[in-house]
């Protein structure tokens, strides 16, 4: 896709004062969001699932959908998350100091890059004295500790692409690629071009990413494209894959990372498990290379004040009718079972809620947590047992253990959630138009989409021939947790209606002129006003 055709799809730069003199005249920095105060940063990183107590009235199958929000919509920033954000913020901005389109330093890098492509030599240069202000950072941690999720939240606070019309630059703030399983540099380059194309709507995979060009040409082209789009930081994930690299492959990959930072001027973050940390620190030279801005080592969460704060926040999101408050016993059990591995904490909490609905107890207890742990999380038992032992040699054996597939377990458990509903015959397929109109009405009633869609499907399947107004009545009864009762034939004579209870429809009907019966029923709240809804959905 041409440069002109992508400009309409990428936001144009909006410049603001970054607060520091050295940043002020650099459009690549001024186009970034400002460095946030701590309270604003915590609020920006935090992710809360939608929660409405009214949803407790929904049947169990629908509540399973609501509980699933926790898997993708819960993030509580802790101290080590804020530390990582501060380092990334500094890494990106400092890296741009030596690549400023306003003073020509970016174009000097590009001229050197062109020379490298022509000579297929990363050390070649057209101009001497071109300065790199880039640095590197390494993040190592056990599986499930939240490395990828935290990076996703932090990087999500930046626009990934920004167009600068005055400088003819389409800035790429960050890019993340996975380290090839065998340390193949060609594959790294191809993956890089692929990711750039996805973000910028370019075609570098075709023009620059052909293996027949050779490794040296691919590497030089990758570096040139990185500077052409003023790449703020390149994240290389899964660097423990270098353990599987063929002889010499890992060292070549290390050398390339160092060249990216020191020569090309692009900051690099390397992310991997503790196994990668050991591999990188095998020699002093390798350790020094990856510690430009320090190395962060994340482990399981300790049981401290931050753990308690996290559990209190998470425990608020229960879709159980007999929810039990968090106490020391439950908190202790959660830590013992999960060992503070964040991914397992959330998955155990989700599966426990589904099991509580399936059993009908609608309450999480320590016994239930242990039962779910034994039944559903068997793949991680060895790793967690090693963590409980605090023996490094055992923990090292399970460093890269795959986390359990939560979706598979949820489907199996959701199938066991049985509602005591009358059996109905299979209904004919409802016209799409009626389904769409019903969904529009549910949206107007502010029912969340993840609840509205299965609710509409179930009601339409059970009552395909009912008019839309009657279906809405079914929905309101559904949301209140009651079932509309069938009217019973009255044997009270009309002459005796005035002696019936005040809320009886027959008494309301005869308590005034016949022509005003509708008004009296409406005043008593017996008529559901759909007027505003029909106007938008009809």
Topology (elements, then pairings):
Layout: H1 3-6, H2 21-24, H3 27-30, H4 38-45, H5 60-67, H6 69-73, H7 79-97, H8 105-119, E1 136-141, H9 147-155, E2 161-164, E3 169-172, E4 174-178, H10 185-200, H11 204-207, H12 215-228, E5 233-237, H13 249-264, E6 268-272, H14 274-280, H15 284-289, E7 295-298, H16 305-315, H17 328-338, H18 342-359, H19 366-376, H20 381-389, H21 392-397, H22 406-414, H23 432-444, H24 449-462, H25 468-480, H26 505-510, H27 517-523, H28 531-537
Parallel strand pairs: 1-6, 1-7, 4-5, 5-6
Antiparallel strand pairs: 2-3
Helix pairs in contact: 5-18, 5-24, 8-12, 10-12, 17-18, 17-19, 18-19, 18-22, 23-24, 23-25, 23-28
Commentary on this structure:
Mean pLDDT is 84; it is low at 1-5 and 419-431. The protein has 28 helices and seven strands. The two termini are 42 Å apart. With 538 residues, it is an alpha/beta fold. It has four domains: 3-35 and 78-298, Rossmann fold; 305-414; 432-480; 494-537, no CATH class. 51% of the residues lie in helices and 6% in strands. The longest helix is centred in the N-terminal third of the chain and has 19 residues, at 79-97. The chain has helices at residues 3-6, 21-24, 27-30, 38-45, 60-67, 69-73, 79-97, 105-119, 147-155, 185-200, 204-207, 215-228, 249-264, 274-280, 284-289, 305-315, 328-338, 342-359, 366-376, 381-389, 392-397, 406-414, 432-444, 449-462, 468-480, 505-510, 517-523, 531-537; strands at residues 136-141, 161-164, 169-172, 174-178, 233-237, 268-272, 295-298. Strands 4-5-6-1-7 form a five-stranded parallel β-sheet, sandwiched between helices.
């Amino acid at each position: 896709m041409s440069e002109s055709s992508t400009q309409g799809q990428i936001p144009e730069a909006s410049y603001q004062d970054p607060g520091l003199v050295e940043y002020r005249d650099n459009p690549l920095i001024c186009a970034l969001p400002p460095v946030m105060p701590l309270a604003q940063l915590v609020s920006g990183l935090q992710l809360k699932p939608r929660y409405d107590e009214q949803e407790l009235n929904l049947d169990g199958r629908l509540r399973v959908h609501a509980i699933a929000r926790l898997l993708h919509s819960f993030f509580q920033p802790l101290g080590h998350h804020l530390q990582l954000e501060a380092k990334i913020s500094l890494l990106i901005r400092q890296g741009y100091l030596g690549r400023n389109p306003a003073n020509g330093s970016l174009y000097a890098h590009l001229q050197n890059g062109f020379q490298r492509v022509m000579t297929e030599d990363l050390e070649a240069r057209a101009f001497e004295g071109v300065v790199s202000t880039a640095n590197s950072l390494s993040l190592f941690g056990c599986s499930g500790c939240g490395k990828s999720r935290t990076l996703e939240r932090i990087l999500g606070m930046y626009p990934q692409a920004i167009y600068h019309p005055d400088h003819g630059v389409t800035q790429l703030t960050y890019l993340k690629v996975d380290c090839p399983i065998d340390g193949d540099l060609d594959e790294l380059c191809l993956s890089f071009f692929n990711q750039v194309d996805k973000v910028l709507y370019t075609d570098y995979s075709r023009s620059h990413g052909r293996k027949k060009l050779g490794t040296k040409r691919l590497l030089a082209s990758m570096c040139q494209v990185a500077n052409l789009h003023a790449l703020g930081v390149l994240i290389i994930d899964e660097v423990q894959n270098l353990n599987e690299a063929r002889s010499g492959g890992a060292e070549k990959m290390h050398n390339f990372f160092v060249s990216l930072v020191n020569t090309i001027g692009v900051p690099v973050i390397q992310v991997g498990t503790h196994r990668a940390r050991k591999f990188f620190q095998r020699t002093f030279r390798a350790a020094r290379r990856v510690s430009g801005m320090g190395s962060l080592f994340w482990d399981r969460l300790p049981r401290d004040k931050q753990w308690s704060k996290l559990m209190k926040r998470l425990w608020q999101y229960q879709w159980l009718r007999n929810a039990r408050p968090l106490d020391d016993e439950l908190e202790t059990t959660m830590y013992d079972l999960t060992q503070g591995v964040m991914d397992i904490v959330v998955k155990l909490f989700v599966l426990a809620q589904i099991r509580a609905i399936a059993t009908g107890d609608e309450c999480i207890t320590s016994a239930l947590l242990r039962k779910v742990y034994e039944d559903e999380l068997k793949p991680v038992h060895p790793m967690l047992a090693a963590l409980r032992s605090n023996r490094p040699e055992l923990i090292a054996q399970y460093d890269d253990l795959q986390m359990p597939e939560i979706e598979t377990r949820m489907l199996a458990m959701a199938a066991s959630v049985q509602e005591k509903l009358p059996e109905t015959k299979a209904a004919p397929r409802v016209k799409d138009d009626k389904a769409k109109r019903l969904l529009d009405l549910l949206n107007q009633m502010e029912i969340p989409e993840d609840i509205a869609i299965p609710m509409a499907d179930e009601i339409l399947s059970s009552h395909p021939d009912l008019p839309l107004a009657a279906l809405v009545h079914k929905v309101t009864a559904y949301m209140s947790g009651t079932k509309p009762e069938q009217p019973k034939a009255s044997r009270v004579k009309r002459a005796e209606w005035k002696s019936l209870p005040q809320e009886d429809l027959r008494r309301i009907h005869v308590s005034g002129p016949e022509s005003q019966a509708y008004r009296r029923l409406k005043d008593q709240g017996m008529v559901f006003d759909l007027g505003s809804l029909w106007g938008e959905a009809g």
